[in-house]
Structures are given as structure tokens and as C-alpha cells.
User: Fold these one by one.
Assistant:
Number 1:
Amino acid sequence: MLVYEQNALSEEIENLVKKYGNDRPALLEILQDIQRKHKYISDFAQQEVARLMNIHPVEVNSVISFYSFLHSHPQGRNIVRLCRTIMCEHAGKEKVEQAIERELGISFGQTTKDNRITLEYTNCLGMCDMGPAMIVNDRVYTHLDPERAVNILNEIK
Amino acid sequence: MELVIEEKIKRTGPVIFSEYQAGEGIRKALSINRQDVLFELKASGLKGRGGAGFPTATKWMLSAAAVADKKFIVCNADEGEPGTFKDRVLLLEYPKLIFDGMVVGGYTIGAKTGIVYLRGEYEFMLEHLESCLEKMRNENLLGKNILGKEGFDFDIKIRFGSGAYVCGEETALIESLEGHRGEPRNRPPYPVNTGYLGYPTVVNNVETLAAIPHIITKGGEWFKQHGTDKSTGSKLFSVSGDCEKPGVYELPWGTKISELLELVGAANTKAVQVGGASGICLPQSQFDRVLAYEDAATGGSIMIFNEKRSMLKVLKNFMEFFVEESCGQCTPCRVGNIKLLEGVERIEKGNYTFAYINTLKELGKTMQVASKCGLGQSSPNSFISILENFKEEIFHTNGNGGYDGKAK
């Protein structure tokens, strides 16, 4: 990571700490904001958060490792999460899954070479009556079929 | 937003979906004193709608009686149970009920802050909910000296989860709010005494809070007219799976499963999973059981499987879910769920003996008593009930009947 990038990230985290406060309940909110913007929380960001909040970096890391929506390794610019719980599965998740994998040329758990999309599974999205469902960043798509899913993925940048 | 538009249909129901004007419940509550609110609540017999069924009046009384300089009221909107989506509908279409319920709660127990713990998957609702809160602030239904009531300040903020099912457990939720890993705490002490940041905290399900403004405006006796003796009022059922009309239905407690199936247009139903992955799976012969706390209890999830579905695959999906979502803190749950999943995989391959299956069932029963929180206590439910109720299908009709399919 370049020095000016580090400085920019430090400043950003300082602003977040100013916004949410530096007591412990703010930790998750700060991490969620970093995750939202950068799609992952780098080692450097973790150390900065720990320093500014006056806790051990391992504390920060343990929180990140617990939550499945927080990542400590680089992800694609867009994170696509496909619901794999039983109702979406019965509604035809498998065909959608295959179509997406074929289109992007990667399997779930991987990121495309151009860093555009990371594919992930997720547990129940709460869209069981409208399955299969997937969530792209924070937007939810329901009633998917293979064709529509591929179109949605091709539209995101 | 695509999703919001899709859901704009007129809903009707006896309690939650009945007529209600925004702010009505707050006005009524502020015009009577705190004890009377608790009295109405007690008369209504309302129980927690998240699934555990703890009497709401008792919870509120305990925290109202607690002496502390700060108190909190938390709305548990972390619905992660497979097959549950009633909170999504309530949050999108009836936020006024939930927020009014929280304000009434704040008034009653003496809290100044309400927190909505919204699951990360529902982040798309944030704008919508914030605009509802802003509107309430403009109308003085939130903020300082609410509706001119001297000294009653209350505001609501929204916090997000990050994709952890176990955070729906109230102590795990509090841990998560405090910025820790969402690992459940030992109880007691209960959150009503030692909750968020050590202060008395009431954690209520979205649907519980949504029922409160109705109870306050229309009375506990009115609420009690619906439902059964032990399960008063109505319940939102999230119906999904093999039926013509999946969706959210408000029905009084005490509705028979067969009646519900008829209503949603389910045909050739083989099994109904009541209460989500942590609930029980009922075969056709038990469809005359009633949905109520005293019989087939549920947090609202009804999943319907028709004759084409393989129950073993269903069970495998559930067990994979629990293996992933177990927080790993206590051994019965962390190791037990993996062992149960292993068992399902061995049944798939035919690599099992019945002695082994029985051992696993025993293990399931051990998990039910030895696990620390509701996740591990209820995850063996589907394992035990599916293997029990569908043993014909799993072990004989479609199964390979024993060790590597050799021994019959």
C-alpha cells in the first residue's frame, strides 16, 4: 500500500471515529462503513481502527472474523450473495447458480479477474416467498431466473 | 424500489393488520399512567412473537421496576430464521406500528433510547425507515417532551447486523450492539436487569412491538378475544414453499395446519416445517395440530414441502445452515451440529447402522439440554423430527437400508 493511500485511509478512519465515537459500541458501525466503501478491511485499516479506539488489533480482527458480511481479504468491487437456504433452493437456485458461474467463469467463493464481482453464498435473505433471491451489495433481487440473473450481473460495473 | 412496490397490496387481519392511525397508540399511552399501560398489556396476555413466547408484560414490568439512570428498548429486527419474512413486511409497510410500540415501551419502562437492530441483509430499508423516523420527529412523536408530555424524551436509532444468524438471540444481539462478537451470554442475569452496556434493556421482536399500539388503543380484552386461552391474539405466518399463494398471513392462534394449507392453496403436501429450521417437521398425519404456543409453536415460519421433495435433502440443508451459523462458543452446539450433518451425509451414502442413528438422536437430545443458547437447543429439532416422522421414506422407500446398502 502506498504512503499516500495509507494517509487517506487513516484520515477516513479518523473521520469515522469522530462521527461514531471511540467507545466500543461504535466498533461495528465503523467496520461496516469501511466494509461498505472498500469491500474489505485491510490489515492497515484494522490497526488504525484499533489505535484510534484504544483497543488491541486482535479485538478488531476477532470481530471481523465473526461476521460473515465483514471481510479481511480483498474482494471484488461488487459482492453478489446468492441465497442457498431451502426455499430458494426449491425455487430453482441451482439453475441460477450454474448460469451465473458459466457467465462469469468463476465459481462461488471466487472473484472475477477484472475484480468486478465476488460471488458468495449466504443464508436465508428473508425472501423465501419470492425466491430465488440474491443480494448485490445492498440491493435485493427476487424471482430470479437464469437469464435475468445473468442480465443483472452484466449490468453492474 | 422494486421490492417495495411489489408488496403494496392491501392487507387485512384481526389485530396487526387492522385499522390504525399513526401516533394513536402514543397519544393514548401518554394520556394514562405507566401502570395502566402495563395493566392493559398484562390483560392482553401478549407473548413474545420471536418464537420463545415469554410474556411481554412480565418483561416490561421487570425492567420498569429496575432502578438505573439509563434504560434501553431494543427492537430485534434480525430475523434470520429460514422461512421467516414477516418482519420484512412489517418494516416496509407498517413501520408506524413498530416505532409507536417502541415509544410506548420507552414511556412505560422509562427508557430514553430505542435501538432497532436491523439485519445486514435489510440494509435496503434504511432510507425508508429513516424517513419514517424523520417524519415522526417533525410531528413530535419522537424527540424531546413528546406530544407536550413534560420530561418524556425518546429517540430511535437504527443499527445494523452483519450477517450472523445467532445475533437474533437477545444476549448475542446485545453483545453485537456493544461492538463485540455476537456470542450469547449466560443467563441470568437477564437483559431486563443487565443488558446493553449493563443497563436494563428490553429486547422485543418486531411483531411484538407492532401489536402493542393496537393493545393500547383497543384494550387488552379486545386483543384477548382472538386466539386461544393460552395463546392470545393473532400471529403473522410467513408461508413459503410448494403452494399457490406464498406470503404473509395474519391468522388467530389456534388455526389448524390443514386450514392454513387450504388457505394458501397447497396441494399434495407431504410435510410442513413449523418454526423454521429450528422448528419441527410434521407429516400429513399431524396436520390437524393447531398453531399455538401450547401445541405447534412457531415464530411464524411455515415451510411447505410437496411429494416431490426429498426430506433428507431438506434436512441436509438445515444442518449445513446450523453448522455455518453456530457461533462456536459452546461445545454441544459447535461439535454437535457437525456430527449431525456428518450423520445426514452418511445416511445419503448408505454408510450407517441404526445403532449409529440412535446415537445421533441421543446426541441431539443432549444438545437440547446442554447448549448455551436457543440455537444449539433447537437445532436438533428438525434432525430428530424428520428422521422420526419420515423414516419410511429416508430409510426404506428411497434409502438404501443400511450399511453400504448391503445389509437389509
Number 2:
Amino acid sequence: MVFEKLFFEVNPGELLFLRGRNGSGKSTLLRVVAGFLPVRAGTLTYGEEAWGRGDAALSEALVYAGHDNALKPVLTLRENLQELSRLMTGGLLAENRIAEAAEIFNLGRLLDQPVRYFSSGQRHRSNLMRFACLDRPLWLMDEPTVGLDAENRQALASLMKNHLAAGGMILAATHDPIGAEGREIDMRDFQPTATLGEEWL
Amino acid sequence: MSTSLSGIFFGVIKRDIRLAWSQGGTGTMALSFFLIAVTLFPFGVGPEPQVLARIAPGVIWVVALLACLISLDRLYQADFEDGSLDDLALSPLGLTGVAAAKIAAHWISTVLPLVVASPLLGILMNLPEEAYGTMVFSLLLGTPALSLIGSMGAALTVSVRRGGVLLSLLVLPLYVPTLIFAVGAVDASAGHVDASQPLALLGASSLLALAIGPFVSAQALRLSLE
Amino acid sequence: MHKFANPAQFNRLADRILPWAKAILAATLLYGLYLALFDSPPDRQQGESVRIMYVHVPAAWMAMFCYMVVAGASFTEIVWRHPLALLAGKAAAPIGATFTALALITGALWGKPTWGTYWQWDGRMTSVLVLFFLYLGYMAIWRSMDEEEKAGRAASILALVGVINIPIIKFSVEWWNTLHQPASVFRLDGPTIDGNMLWPLFTMAIAFKAYFVIVFLYRMKLEINRRKISVLRMSQVNG
């Protein structure tokens, strides 16, 4: 996947939507920003610093939620969150913080159930809880609204608004309206136009 | 909250040990395989005590190696399939450190039980008494290399469906030196010969595997994230 | 670095080299076979079977040489992400595997009349066998993934780890072997080789190398064409 003439910036307190049909590269762009994919040409900067994959500074600045839920079915939701917290910070979460995060998405009574009994919607909401549990300035959200009903969508929107109000940044790939205000970029504008010629491998 | 790298490292080890011994984990499977596969040999080659004593070190080591191998294909694959590998790659510890922690967890949860069970199999295989100490010591010294080398293969095949067969093809040739040194040491003890030279070489191969294993694994895992 | 990644330039270079390589192959192979089969003397102890050496030894040399080509290409690919290097490793590996198999088979055929057995777990044979397995692993990884480049990079990582392993294997199996059978280490080289045998040996070695160059270049051209096709297909699907 190649982008052409792609330029964007996200400032503190700002939400940027990546729009475009399936296959237009929304997820790919998010994964580039998260450092999973190398930037072959062009630059990515965070503040003044260049943003390279595998940087500790990069991993301490962002939370990423992709298509897969990254939950271990044999562990309870609470244990899953604690494992995530320990992986990202080395420490455990306060119990009341977990309880609050669970309330946002109506998962309070499921906290001590193993995730393998969850429906796919419940798993997705469990995955979104990471945004309420980790303190990182930049949120990368890949299709966060998939499978959310109106009520949960509203909960997500208010969670995002709180984050923005606190000076956070959000990059969200979605085609649904979320309910939070933000700028938009359309991935169609950056499709490569030139076809590959004879001289290229 | 400030970040504690050692907290992350030991957190990953604890997490993986727990997952390995929970339902669907590989810890119990490898141990059962080890016990069952060794007991096949007396049926295969006949129960003469001298024959069994002669082949005991090799059989126990080869089967331990295979038991380790069958547990390896899930080392990263489970995390790859459910998306946790993304989180592991984003940990401030760095993917090399995470790989090192996961390898350590694999060794503790899956290989260490094999080492503990090995004297029992020594009895079944009529291993000469003088060789028990060296056998356990050689397993303790050499099996980390199996986990470390295997981790590279597991990371390379993480995105391959049914990668287990491919994994064996990649890893088994790399296991040859470890096996030779280890069995050389146990054989030497069984024959009342000084085993320190093969043991030193065994330790050296583990150290070399330690030097490259986590780093190469991390590079290979990065590939699967692309 | 990437200016050499231009396939058109590579094809021009390959087309310039190929006729020369073919001429060298024809000349050295015919002359070498004549020397090896008719001109050189039979061995005092081994008799006529020593002539297997003129295939066996160059094949073994090429087995190692091809692995170094694969490893060098892998290194270039990993460090500089050079697309032609990726293809070079893929092109060289099957040739190397074939030479390794040839060395093993001719070795076995030579071993039967000389040592009375097709196979001996001697240090050199064992390490060549492991080399063969490394080639198999490298090629298997290439075929295991849908995405060419990913597969190639994974294979490159394996090839580089294999480089570290080769001297260790060689060293360890020789040591292992001498522990068990100190008396039966056979030597193919050494001062016993006569000048009459050395000359055909080198001629055959050059012929083998020319053969490698020819097959390697053709395989590279093939891979480049395959890449072009897949790029075209991709642009048709996405366009």
C-alpha cells in the first residue's frame, strides 16, 4: 500500500477522522503511525522528535486498538485489563479505575467473567476499555464504532470528548458518525496516481 | 504512572506461564508427550537393560527436544491470532525484551517440568547411576538454547497457517550442536570420563543462542506485524 | 544502492554475461570431462572409482559457495531492503540445494567401493547433510507465505542464522564423531593428491561455477518477470 502526497497533523485537543471505503488504507495508515509498518519514504514526527518504529517514546505515547480484540479468552476481563496495564506500564491498575472504565461501557457485572463467554459486541467494548485505563496522549482507533448500539456509541463519544478536553489527541479510522467533533481527511485524495513502470521492481 | 521495565518483563513472564498452564495451554501437553514418547523406546528396541542403558541419554535428550518443539508453534501464534502481538510490540520494554520474557516463560512453564521429570525417565531407561547428575545438569544448561533457537523459528512461522511442520524443518537442523554436546556430556559421565569439555561447549551454545535469540525473534515478529 | 535495483539494467548486464558463461561452460566441461575420465590416472588404491571425485568435490565446493551467495543476498536484503537481493537469494537457493544433494549422492556412490558403505556419520558428511536441511528450510519459508516480500525477509533471517550455525555444526559433528569412532576419519584432501588429478579438478570446478552463473542469471530474469506480472496483476485488481 502506498500513499501519495499524504500530509496531516494532529494537535493536542484535536480529533482527526480518517475516512474512506474499505481497502483505502485507513487501517494501514493507523498501523504506520503506531510504528508497526516502516515508513519507506517521508517522515513522521511527534513534537520535535522523529517517530520511529520500536521507539520506547513512541510506545509510551499511544494507545492502539485494532480489529482484533487482543483479549485472552481464559482470563477474566479484569485480568485481561491488568495484564494490559502491566505490559504497558509495569504496574497494576487501581480497582476503582477498572470499575469506572467498566461502567462507561456497561461491563461492570462482567468484570470477573472469563472473556470466552462474551459475545463479540461485549468483546469489542472490552477492548475499547483500554482507552479509559491507560494514560496516553495519542489514541489510535481502528473502526471503534463497529457493533456498538446508540447508547454505547454515546458513551464512546463522551469518553473521546473528555480525552480531547484534557488535551489528548485522537486519530480514528471510521466511516460511521461517532458524535464527537473533528476534522476529516479522505483517504481517496492520497491514492497513488502513477502506475508502476518498467523500471520498477 | 511511571513505567517500570522490570515490572513489564516479569509481568510478561507471569502472564505467559499462567496461559501455558491454563486450559488450551501447552505446558501439560509437552510433559505428557515427553513421558509417553520415551516409554515407546523399550517397546521399539527391546527391553534389554544394556541396550537401554546405552541409548538412554540420547533418547531422553531427543525426546525432550521434540517435546519442546511441539510446544513452540504456539509461542507467538496465539498472540498473533488474537491481536495481542500488537500490544506486545507497543510495550515500552521493546519487542526484543518482550521476546526474551516470553522465551523465559516458555522455558519455565514447558521445559523445566521436563527437566524435573527426566530422572524418572532415567530409571525407566536404565540410565547408569553415574550419569543422573550430568543428565539433569546438561538439561538445565542446554535446554535454554532449545527455547531460544525455537523462538526464532516460532517467530518466523508465526503468520503461517499450520506452521508446525515448517517450524520443525527450520529448527531441527539448528538443534544439532546442542544435542551433540549434551549427549556427549551424559555419555562421558556414563563411561566415567570427564564431561567438563562438552558441558562447557553446551553452555557456550546456550550463551550464543541467548545473544541472538531474542533479537532475531523480535525482528521476525516485526515482519509479521507489517 | 538502489540504482542497481533497476531490472532493465540488470537484464542488460545479464545478457552481456550469459554468452561468455555459456562458452566457458562448454569449453571447461568438455575439457574437464576428458581430463577426468580419460587423461587422469586411476588411483593406486581406489582404482577407477576415484573419478567420482571430479564431480563430487566441485559439487561440495559449490554447495558452500551457493550458501554464501544466499547469505550475502539475505544480508543485503535485511540491511538495505534491496529488491534484487531478495530475488538473488531465492534464485541461488535451489541451485545450492541441488549441488548439495549432488555432493551427498556422489559421496555415497564413492563411499561404497572405497569404504564399503554408502553412508558414514562422519563429520563432513553430517555437516553437509545439515546444510542441505538449511537449504530446504530456506526454500520452504519462501513458499509458506502469500506475501512474497514478507516470505523473503523471513527466509533471509533464517539464512543469516544458518551462517552462524554452519561452523558450529561442522566443529561439533567432527568432535562428536571422533569421540565415537576416532579411527575412521577419512580424508579426501591433503598432500596425497597428484598434480594430474588437481588440474582436472580445477577445470571441473570452473565448469560448475559457469553453470551456476548461467542458471542463476536465468532464474533471476525469471523472478524479475514474475515480479512484473504480479505488479501488473495487482494494479489491475486495484485499478
